[in-house]
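Fig. S4 source data, part A: sequence.
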Amino acid sequence: MPSSVLADVRLLTESFDAGAELARFTAAQVEAGGIASFLGQVRAGGGVEALELRHYGPLTLPGMEALAAEAQRRWTLEGLLMIHRSGEMVPGDPIVLVAAAARHRRDAFAAAEFAMDHLKSESWFWKREKVGGQWSWIEPRPVDFEDKRRWDAAG
């Protein structure tokens, strides 16, 4: 059964407090029996000095909103939060936060994973990282596309 709950979908150019965002979202989900979340952050190591995400404005937020609507169509959700950052970030900075609230845990887990799999492989972002003072573009990994394909088959 499709959800009629509005999703909170945001595209930010400034950092966000993932803990505060998740606490606010969780506090509003009084009907939920389960909340699943994922936080993606800039990883340290490998000499990474910075990460930059660029995007095409006219497609990015509408694409994220369509993705949220598809998650709501597939699972019965009490709430959905999707925050994605663009711009330059340093190790430890949050990049993306997805949280799904549902009466039952399976819907929450599936919706959050679905959203992340699509954001990793089908998003409207271009990513580059700075190592040793040099910027280089990063392509999605083959496994990212494989993760998304399993949802296509599940339709």
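Fig. S4 source data, part B ends here. DSSP finds four helices and eight strands in the chain.
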